[in-house]
Amino acid sequence: MLSINLNQKSKEETYKSLIPICKSLIDDETEWLSLLANFSALLKQTFDSFSWVGFYLLKDGRLILGPFQGKVACSLIEIGKGVCGTSFKEKRTIVVEDVEKFPGHIACDENSRSEIVVPIFIDNEIIGVLDIDSYNYSNFDQIDQENLETLVSILSSKLKQLNYRLI
């Protein structure tokens, strides 16, 4: 069982400590569904300011809800819609300081105030996004973006090893 205690002084130090923990968590994993579930749990457990952490995965030309931690969520998002659909379409990380100001924001949780969405690639093909919400305005910054992109890259490498294919 993996023990997680990251009472660090800064967000940057927390992420730095989280990377080897993440690698350890996924090293022996053989199931992609379990991998995504534990990955989202690890992030939610580590950061108190994250109100929702989860995945939206490409299936039949739309994003469907994958493993997550948090309140009940929207189960389907069209490509190009909301923050997740826009991140997927534009194939880039999007940081939103105030979701109310994002055109077409999809409010799955009316209490969400800020959001970060990181695309997931396998062999340069986008397969989904990691979505993280917060009840705090401007919760996410460059430190989050850089480190979450690193963590998602580690995750994608493992998904590739597992020959990830959404059924």
Write a concise synopsis of the structure shown.
This protein has 167 residues and is an alpha+beta fold. It has helices spanning 11-27, 32-46, 82-90, 142-161, and strands at 52-59, 62-69, 76-78, 94-96, 114-122, 125-134.
CATH-scheme architecture: 2-Layer Sandwich
How much of the sequence lies in strands comes to 15-25%
What is the count of structural domains? Answer: 1
Helix content: 25-40%
Strand order of the largest sheet: 3-2-1-6-5-4
Name of the CATH homologous superfamily: GAF domain
Series of secondary-structure elements, N-terminal to C-terminal: HHEEEHEEEH
Poorly predicted runs are none
Could you say what the CATH topology is called? Beta-Lactamase
| Biggest pleated-sheet summary | 6 strands, antiparallel
Separate helix tally:
4
User: What oligomeric arrangement do these chains adopt?
Assistant: single chain
Layout of secondary structure:
Elements: H1 11-27, H2 32-46, E1 52-59, E2 62-69, E3 76-78, H3 82-90, E4 94-96, E5 114-122, E6 125-134, H4 142-161
Antiparallel strand pairs: 1-2, 1-6, 2-3, 4-5, 5-6
Describe this entry's structure for a reader.
The two termini are 29 Å apart. The model has no long low-confidence stretch (mean pLDDT 93). With 167 residues, this protein is α+β, with helices and mostly antiparallel strands. It is built from four helices and six strands, in the order H-H-E-E-E-H-E-E-E-H.
